[in-house]
Amino acid sequence: MKPYAFDYARATDVAEAAELLAAGGGEARLLAGGQSLGPMLNFRLVRPGLLVSIAHLRELRAAQETPDAVMIGACVTHAEIADGRVPDIGGGVLRGIAEGIAYRAVRNRGTIGGSLCHADPSADWLCTLTALGASVHTQSTGGARAIPLSAFVPAAFRTVLEPGEIVTAVSIPRLSLGARWGYFKAMRKPGEFAYAMAAVLDDPGRGVKRAVIGAVGGAPVVLEGESATPEAVEAALSGSGLDDLERRMQKVALTRALAKAA
Amino acid sequence: MAAQESVGEREDRSAAGVGARVRRKEDDRYLRGKGEFIGDIRFPRMQELCFLRSPVAHARIRSIVKPKGAEAVVFTAADLMGVKPIVANSRLPGFKSSEQPVLAFEKVRYVGEPVAVCIAATRAAAEDLAAAVEVEFEELPAISDMLAARRPGAALLHEEWGDNVFLETVVDADLEAIRRSAPVTVRRTFRTSRQCMSPIEGRGCVALWDRRLEQMLLYTSTQIPHIVRTGLSGCLGLDEGQVRVVAPDVGGGFGYKGILLVEEVCAAFLARKLGRPMRWLEDRREQLTANANCREHYYEVSAYADRDGRLIALEAEATVDAGAYSAYPFSACLEAAQVASILPGPYKFDAYRCRTWSAATNKPPILPYRGVARCGVCFAMELIMDAIAREVGREPYEVRLRNLIPAKAMPFDNITNKHFDSGDYPECLLRAVKAIDLPALRERQKRGEADGTRIGVGFSIFCEQAAHGTSVYAGWGIPMVPGFEQAEARLTPDGGLELRVGIQSHGQGLETTLAQVAHSELGIALERIKVVHGDTAITPYSTGTWGSRCMVMAGGAVASACRELAVRIAGIGAHLLQVAPDQVKVRDGKVIGPGGSVDIAEIGATWYLRPQDLPDNVAPGGLDVTAGYKPQRDSGTFSYAAHAAVVSVDVELGAVRILDYVVVEDGGVLINPMIVDGQVYGGTAQGIGTALYEEMSYSEEGQPLASTLADYVLPGATEVPPIRIEHMETPSPYTTFGQKGLGEGGAIGPPAAIANAVNDALHPLGVELTELPITPRRIVAAVAAAKRGRSEG
């Protein structure tokens, strides 16, 4: 379980990382916290010719606040969020999510942007940030753009990022006063990937009601507005490839997430 | 037996001798990260090995093409001239022999079987080579299930056998009349999953050929260095004198390292052939997918009882999935052949029938894992007891009490001629019932839980044969049969003590407990006693560490050697004190006479450095004694324990939480109760893994379906609750201090206790689970099935 040989470059800024990525064609990959890429390298599931390291870049490690949102740099770690070292969107929601990600050792290195780009359907951030209506901000040699998370992951382990495009930050809308949030996941043991997960946001102040089911084998399933109910889960998951029992457990997960949001 | 009357006066239990809760001597290096494991050992010019392993479960090898230019650093079976396959036969009648080639020859029989070995300066480069080897396979139908293996017409792993059964055993009896007349009949099938033993340190070895000594030096992470030496010599055609095996610090074993490895044979062969040190370090993927398999059992059990739940007869058919080859030295039949003899457990009944099969499948060979065969057996028997209890409408513990062998019957020969040496089984169970507070739990169940979960309580009770010796193993006739265990006790010139033993400490704290035994005999301070183990060149031959045998066997041998040494020390001391030998005692590290004393260091200095001061009649053997030991009966000590578990079950999601766990254990006289507690904690953690988490599934094509610890779920800190331990200490009548082997019991009881607790919780829903591990999915599926059954019924 040792990787194939690869070259390694430590980018000095995002622009250089984007250039290296573009120049590498399909051969180059970004390395942030390495908590998913590292094992994939060792298992030889991926074979990049070049790894471009970005975890240290200051511009990716910043967090900013606007009146409506919190913008978290892509290379902010789960642990930094769990430890309250970046602003929260209200109610300690982000902190609560981050605290439950994997184990502390993973949280110490794993990054919010890296997790989203890895696009694992069972990952905490993908499910919860989709429910929270977050967007990713990207940069490439061609310019910058913002992509709503609900449109970011078309399928398991895939994103709509163009070759050479780098996620620089995640923008998460602030919760209104009176917003209610619930997140529930069922795992074989704490820290393991979930076999059922659901996140619910009910924010009347902004007119948002949304439920997201994760750990479904593909992109998270979003239930908007009135359809954000347990009764809608089984139908919504009918094409997901989950069997009866799995769909039923997802329904339970949503019921419990709703109970937490109550 | 060479054991003498003890001339030393046993030290007080509160000090540092037998019975003292002494901190482990080895903790200093382990806890500070200063241990030396295989992964820490490097030699100049050392090369790393990577094994190309079969990607298919059953196939003929059509061709192997080595990467161009790498022909000299890639080896296949055709290159291993003169290397013999590994063979581990049992002399039980009907046992069919398998030959495990060191590298696959003509056929592969499981995914992960080594096909070629690649040599490079780094592991990564060796893996690159392995990826470039081209192997053409002609695939054969794979046998991925032990029951399918036994069906007529199944594809054959070893064509010459004519079937896929290593061994069939029968304990027969005519139960026809009982079958017709028994008031209560309970039938169940049980299944336990294949497990991967997962010590923190995997396997690994470094081999080098010493040209000066003309000797193979093999460093390997093993529990059985002397047996590895014997096996390796045989495979390589070397004299045993040309092989030295060293086990450095070993990071956990549990049986996983009680084996001669094809990787060891390969590394040794290559080190000699190429004249360079060779190292192989197993990685986690190899451990999970290719190397560590055990505990996959299937039972069909019928129990016949009266209306009070008293057992009249038991009959069972059991199949154990033994994998593709018979592993050396414990053989492919050790689990199944034991099932028949230990299934009756701690119970008394009069009629018994049992057939077992060791089925060959296209999976890695099985190994004896902590609690060999007993976890599955205890699971089957203890779930049957609960099923009987439900059938007759009594508390499960009451039904057990009706059937347990009473204390006054001890020692007791049971229906399969197991000789239970001592103990009070009913008392053990009653203590567990009391400690868990059963009446309070029954009340709580009536009230129900506010969060909608269901609470259940479950018990298991079992006995654990340990340190069984010649008479038992001669019957099985596997390649090694333990005899007298030897220990060497050597006083150094400065009054320190060296103990040399052939067993291997790989986490049991034997460097401490054996020193405690010697301290009890001689009074030499613990810090002056050094236990030397893990090197065939400097320790007496031993079958090694397995079967919970060390504290009985090596402990007994150390005591015997120290007692003889004490006699010699006393003789010299008496002379120095100018008194008769029968006027002195060896105590507190001194020889004490009526009018004065002399320090043991003086005795050492006199023998080694000032022999002119010795008495004329001094024993010429000096202060270096090797003694052999066997208990008065070698049929084994029987420690026993009752486990009690309280669980909460989240019925909707199938999650099980252990709310309380009690172990009442009788290991005889405990040499170091703190270490015993550690053994019970660790074993119980592993048993929780068996009960709720660990499962290596195989696809129909024989592909292992878990290749990382994300797929193969091990219990961690959050899954192991605080475990409350109570000790009973009924001395064994047959061992030096009354000690019994107990290293495995912790792992035996939990699957049954936890499964019974889950079933107790789910009984009102009509659910009874009989398959391990009890996963969320199995619970949710069973609840759904019961609901369907009710609505259809």
Verbal overview:
The complex is a heterodimer of chains A (262) and B (793). Chain A has 262 residues and is α+β, with helices and mostly antiparallel strands. Chain A has 9 helices and 12 strands. Helices cover 27% and strands 26% of the residues of chain A. In chain A, a hairpin with a 3-residue loop joins strand 4 (63-65) and strand 5. The termini of chain A are far apart. In chain A, strands 4-5-8-6-7 form a 5-stranded antiparallel sheet. Chain B has 793 residues and is an alpha+beta fold. Chain B contains 19 helices and 28 strands. In chain B, the strands form 7 sheets. Chain B has a 7-stranded mixed sheet, with helices on both faces. Chain B has a 5-stranded mixed sheet with strand order 7-15-14-13-8. In chain B, strand 22 (585-587) and strand 23 (590-592) form a beta hairpin. In chain B, helix 9 (374-392) crosses helix 10 (396-403), helix 9 (374-392) runs parallel beside helix 18 (745-762) and helix 15 packs across helix 16 (600-609). The longest helix of chain B has 28 residues, at 550-577. Chain B is globular and about 95 Å long. Residues 1-6 and 8-14 of chain B have low confidence and may be disordered. The interface between A and B is medium-sized, with 23 and 27 residues.
